[in-house]
Amino acid sequence: MHLKSIERIAQIAPEDFRSKYLLPQRPVILTELSKDWPARRKWDWDYLKKSFGKTQVGVHSNRLAGARMSSTAAADTMCFCDFIDLIRQGPVALRVFRLNFQKLAPDMLRDFAYPDLFPLPFQKQASFLFAGAEGAIAQMHFDSDQAPIFHTQFLGRKRVLLLPPNQSALIYQLPFSEESAASFSGWEYELDEKNYPALSVAKGYEAILNHGDTLFIPSAYWHHMQYMESGIALSLTAKPGIVSLQLKSLYRQNLLQPMNQMMMHLAPEWWFEKKQKMALIQARKAMK
To answer: For residue 93, what is the DSSP state?
Structure first.
């Protein structure tokens, strides 16, 4: 792959953010956006245990998309306090994905502020908490709602790989889904370019998020995240500002996703093999 480092800036005026990053759809890391948030000093493992108590949560593994389950499906459920105790002990391939804390821990809403950089309103019901252990991986995917995201990291560091939507075919997007057929685990060292040669010409961005960093992920961007240490993150989701993205979101959520789920239920092995073959064909065409 051909990768650029994501630009890091401290502060920026809303009009400059719009012209330099939002409209061109370029990612950026804002190092001081969260500097006045109580979350930056308050959010640790003990605080989360106190906030969520014995709430049962879905936990996710590092698996890739398969014939019967997507990579975003929970592998198990457990008490959130037990999950925290487990990941504090050392590396384990477990994480909590898109935990909606607004009903479970509404006091946490006072610990951060929605940025004034974005011209459209935030989807406050789509504010999510993420937590993971050292070694946990969120496999390469994009969000079906096509929304731009402000993703703020707390506690440990996280390694991030981003690719714009025009690279979808080159990274072997599985048709009817938001996932890739290729594995990006350990991408910073080596990729499986023998079986997935189009990866060698794909273009994207890389970065390491530190405590307090906020990553702006533009609409429909592919993202792959690796927890370098156990950590917490907050994602604030804005509404897509382009009508075509809003229509794509409706199309994916109301047509493609239901069809994919139906076929995974009716003929999972045949359907998964067909999607893999289609991904390979699309990649070969894109390389030309």
So the answer is: S
| Dist. CA 170–CA 208, nearest whole Å | 23
Which residue in this structure is represented by tokens 């477990």?
Answer: 94
Torsion angle of C-alpha atoms 204, 148, 24, 31, degrees rounded to 10: -80
pLDDT digits (tens, 9 = 90+) for 35-63: 999 999 999 999 999 998 788 998 988 88
pTM value > 0.90: yes
* Domain 2-287: assigned CATH number: 2.60.120.650
Element (H, E) at 80: helix 80-87
Domain boundaries, the chain: 2-287
| pLDDT band, very low/low/confident/very high, at 98 (cuts 50, 70, 90) | confident
Q: At 242, give phi and psi (nearest 5°).
A: -115, 130
CA distance readout (Å), 112 to 27, 40, 42, 151, 226: 21, 8, 11, 12, 24
What is the residue type of 4?
Answer: K
